[in-house]
Design goal:
23 strands, alpha+beta, 953 residues
Length: 953
């Protein structure tokens, strides 16, 4: 018989066997399809959520051909890049006039003759909501025009027509508690508008705004402000124009150059999609850059994920084929009795891998695409933008399917070799024989584990993705080789356990050939999940560390926008305490200044005082990461040493600039012990006693020398400031005071907005002026939209001079979204793989359960034994997978650490903090949920009664 004929027969036998044993085939298919499904869904989601250049242009300009806008420098010629992202003035161009001297630019005059256009202009505004009022943006744009399609789309209702109608984004309606048909009033002019429809911006689903026709908001608002001086006039932004060329000719590069001569920037669809050569871009003639797009390299994370996905498919499918081969051993024995040799027996098993691998790969790809389509709205909500077209790349999906097919065949290789070695008698009688465990394999596994970890760490420290991926795979294979020994040790743990768990542990140890592959499959799935979750958690911890906080955690602040608004603070405080989840901690803050108040007399030159907290120089006072020698110092610092320096009092306020409390240039606030407890978080009786005794509390110890600080004041007064001048009549006076202070621990140096707390009586003694500035509250949670709007409404009624300051949420970036997708799909694969693998292990143990029933075991013992068998498999796999998954995550973080350290040594004030944070919540869920769920399902589906089968032989 020819080779081709033999394989044809083997394939036919494999196909018929798969159809005959549908349940077992379905489990094998699921084991192959699950990881293929996860990789396919991740690929399609990533590709679809990353907009193409054309889709990005549509999100910015709709169906228009270009966006025209003034550069803001007057009618001065300019040069721009084809994507309008960079521009400058040409050599020899007139000097850019000052802001007051810049004349208007006639942008419509630069449009091609016969072009149609729409104007777009936005203005910040305060409007009423169901809960109160909210600051938002009103955009004047004719949303009903077809040119806007793609930039903005109608979701419900109708487009506005006329001056009294607007449409709102869905995000605005949700936060405001309004809907289509609701009415909202514009604060100031008091005009009321009807919301006729809801819209969304496909490129920005989180945008909160109202849209009106041109002339419906800004012009009436200006007219009302002209009639009534109490109405604050609008401050609209610059106008832009969406332009459609005549007869669909597009806006060409020559059209762009002509507009540039008039000081107009142009973003043209035609030019961006088909850019001119560099030689035709004037800006490139004297700038060292190019518009040619560079090809992106695969990141270390992507390479490692792909490598581990391939290994995961092999380890998941391997036990499935092993179980299938054992369940079909009688049929394989019949092949031998009919004259089939060992190679033909192996061919039958491998053909099963080929048949089921092909079907599983195709099923996984199709299911992955379907899953992405099914969860598309949810994914779009996470990313904050709509997919364009569902981006299905056939070659990538074909590659994923081929990988699934090939690895499926490779997974059947080991079971095929084992089946080929069995004698015909063993196959026909169903006896497995007795094989001693290999003593060499665990040693090889230990060496592979140690070497793989070392290689992965080396790849991380050198930034070589090949070593990271290869070392991670080798380390996981090393753990895999050690599994039989680990399983063998399980039997010794059940000595004092009840009957069912003791039997389950001993059964797992005795039948290592059945238990080890099942454990390996669960380990593979869990390792992928833990690797992604560890990397994700670590990146999020890094972003949280790098985030500049404007307030201390768990606090909000009421701040007077100007000195005259301080009288509104009592009403504002009452509104905050009535509407916010205040937990009881409240502290009032006062500003302090010398001379005339610069926030009032800022218009006149040298007509207000200054107050400076002088920072000494030298070690412990000056930040060594700035100035001469900083780079040389940074070259010898590790990331941890750099972090300690950056967190030191000498350096912490050199980069901490984002703050909600702007009490002055020196960040000195007048307060009492309540401010220490509620805002600073310093509950120290000694510090409170110091404030009560008139001693300032210094939060940043770098400003103290010998327990004292230097406070330098220049008491300069404006001629109009009659009231404050009485304290310092005569010429401007400069004073320098050395004050004894209570120095807080170093960790409080990073308190946003406050460097030192000055008692009121000390400020009076020094001849300083103070005034109410605001109040800080501790809250149970960040104010909701409804709470913020209710408070804002009360502030508006009080005079609109106080505003609520809260901690801004962490911004979401593309990397976080991608990692979220990977974690989601990895979790799905893990749960599915654990359930299917334990099901296969249970199916393979049917003979033992039959024997248990034959000796008279009650049904409850059969159920509990089945459950504990699966529990042992799942729990062991989860624990080993957790250990194996940490390796690639740590290696990838070492790659990030290398890049961050290099950036830090170029810019010493850049953070190099690259933590490795274990996802304990995920690990806890995997350790508890997956094994317990697998055990409960196995116990539930274990039949109470079992028909006894005749023993062969």
């Amino acid at each position: 018989m020819s080779v081709l004929t033999g394989w044809r027969a083997a394939l036919r036998i494999a196909r018929r066997d798969a159809l005959r044993a549908k349940g077992r085939s379905a489990l094998v298919l699921s084991m192959i399809a699950l990881p293929v499904l996860g990789v396919t869904a991740a690929d399609v989601t990533y590709r679809s959520s990353s907009p193409t250049v054309a889709e990005d242009l549509t999100a910015r300009m709709g169906s228009a051909d270009a966006v025209f806008s003034s550069a803001g420098i007057g009618a001065v010629p300019l040069e721009q890049m084809p994507d309008a992202g960079t521009w400058g003035t040409p050599d020899g161009a007139p000097e850019i006039p000052g802001e007051d001297e810049r004349g208007p630019v006639d942008v419509p005059a630069t449009f091609p003759k016969g072009a149609r256009y729409l104007s777009e202009r936005s203005v910040p505004a305060v409007v009423t909501t169901r809960h109160g009022v909210v600051n938002t943006e009103i955009v004047e744009l004719r949303t009903s025009d077809p040119a806007v399609r793609g930039k903005l789309g109608l979701v419900d209702g109708a487009y506005p027509h006329g001056e009294g109608e607007v449409v709102a984004t869905e995000h605005f309606l949700e936060s405001a508690g309004l809907g289509v048909g609701s009415r909202t009033t514009l604060s100031g002019p008091g005009r009321t508008y009807t919301i006729t429809g809801s819209v969304e911006l496909p490129g920005d689903l989180d945008k909160s705004a109202l849209y009106a026709d041109p002339g419906a908001v800004i012009a009436p608002w200006k007219a009302a402000a002209g009639r009534d001086a109490k109405i604050v006039p609008p401050y609209p932004g610059d106008m832009t124009w969406l332009v459609r060329s005549p007869a669909g000719a597009g806006i060409s590069w020559p059209d762009v150059l002509r507009a540039n001569e008039k000081g107009v920037l142009v973003l043209s669809r035609q030019v961006v999609l088909d850019p001119p050569p560099d030689s035709e871009v004037p800006l490139l003639a004297h700038e060292a850059m190019s518009f040619t797009e560079s090809s992106a390299e695969l990141s270390a994370a992507v390479v490692t994920v792909v490598a581990m996905a391939v290994l995961e498919i092999v380890l998941l499918a391997g036990p499935a084929f092993a179980v299938g081969a054992r369940r079909s051993r009688r049929q394989l024995g019949l092949v031998g009795t009919c004259g089939g040799d060992r190679s033909q027996v192996r061919a039958v098993v491998l053909s099963g891998g080929l048949v089921l691998g092909a079907v599983g790969a195709v099923t996984g790809v199709a299911a992955g695409i379907g899953l992405t389509v099914l969860f598309r709205p949810m994914i779009e909500g996470w990313t904050g933008s709509r997919f364009g077209e569902l981006d299905i790349r056939p070659w990538e999906l074909l590659g994923i399917a081929v990988i699934g097919l090939v690895t499926g065949v490779l997974a059947a290789l080991a079971p095929a070799v084992v089946a080929g070695r069995q004698s015909v008698l063993e196959s026909l009688t169903g006896r497995r024989g007795t094989r001693r465990s290999s003593r060499v394999l665990p040693l090889v596994g230990g060496v592979a584990l140690t070497g793989g970890v070392a290689v992965a760490v080396y790849g991380g420290t050198t930034g070589d993705t090949r070593f990271v991926a290869g070392g991670s795979v080798v380390a996981e294979l090393g753990v895999l080789a050690c599994i039989p020994v680990i399983v063998g040790l399980l039997g010794r743990l059940g000595t004092r356990l009840p009957l069912s768990p003791r039997m389950a542990l001993r059964d797992a140890a005795r039948n290592r050939g059945r238990t080890a592959p099942a454990v390996a499959a669960v380990m593979a799935a869990v390792a992928g999940t833990v690797a992604i979750a560890t990397y994700t958690t670590s990146v999020q911890a890094e972003h949280d560390y790098d985030r500049l906080r404007s307030l201390t955690p768990g606090t909000v602040a009421l701040v007077a926008s100007e000195p005259a608004a301080a009288d509104q603070l009592p009403l504002a405080r009452a509104a905050a305490e009535r509407n916010l989840a205040v937990t009881g901690g409240r502290a009032d803050i006062r500003r302090v200044w010398a001379g005339s108040d610069c926030t009032v007399y800022y218009e006149d030159e040298n007509s207000c005082g200054t107050l400076e907290l002088v920072k000494p120089t030298g070690k412990g006072h000056s930040c060594p990461l700035q100035g001469a020698g900083a780079r040389k110092l940074a070259e010898g610092l590790s990331a941890q040493e750099h972090k300690e320096l950056m967190s030191s009092p000498a350096c912490v306020d050199e980069y901490t600039t984002a703050q909600a409390l702007t009490t002055g240039d020196s960040d000195i606030a007048v307060g009492d012990a309540a401010l220490l407890r509620s805002y600073v978080g310093l509950d120290d009786p000694a510090a409170a006693d110091a404030l009560a005794a008139g001693t300032p509390v210094l939060l940043n110890s770098a400003y103290a020398q010998d327990g004292r600080v230097t406070l330098k004041a220049v008491h300069t007064y404006n001629e109009r400031d009659k009231e404050n001048r009485r304290l310092h009549p005569g010429k401007a006076e400069a004073t320098t005071d050395r004050l004894k202070v209570y120095v807080a621990p170093a960790k409080y140096a990073a308190t946003p907005g406050i460097r030192m707390i000055l008692p009121q009586r000390t400020a009076d003694r020094l001849g300083m002026h103070t005034a109410d500035y605001g109040t800080v509250y501790t809250v149970a949670h960040t104010p909701t939209d409804a709470e913020s709007q209710a408070v804002s409404a009360a502030f508006t009624r009080a005079g609109d001079g106080v505003y609520l300051q809260t901690e801004n949420p962490m911004e979401r970036n593309d990397e976080d979204v991608i990692l979220l997708f990977l974690a989601l799909f990895a979790g799905v694969v893990t749960l599915g793989a654990a359930a299917i693998t334990t099901g296969l292990a249970k199916a393979d143990a049917e003979a033992d359960l039959t024997t248990l029933s034959a000796v008279g075991a009650p049904p409850g013992v059969r159920r509990s034994l089945s459950g504990f068998q699966c529990l042992v498999v799942a729990l062991t796999g989860v624990l080993l997978g957790t250990a194996a998954g940490v390796v690639p995550a740590v290696a990838l973080r070492l790659v990030d650490l290398r890049e961050a350290t290099a950036a830090m040594r170029e810019q010493p004030m850049d953070s190099a903090y690259t933590p490795v944070v274990l996802p304990w919540e995920t690990i806890g869920l995997l350790t508890l949920v997956v094994p317990v769920l697998a055990g409960l399902l196995a116990a539930a589906f274990a039949g109470s009664r079992l028909s006894l089968a005749r023993r062969a032989g």
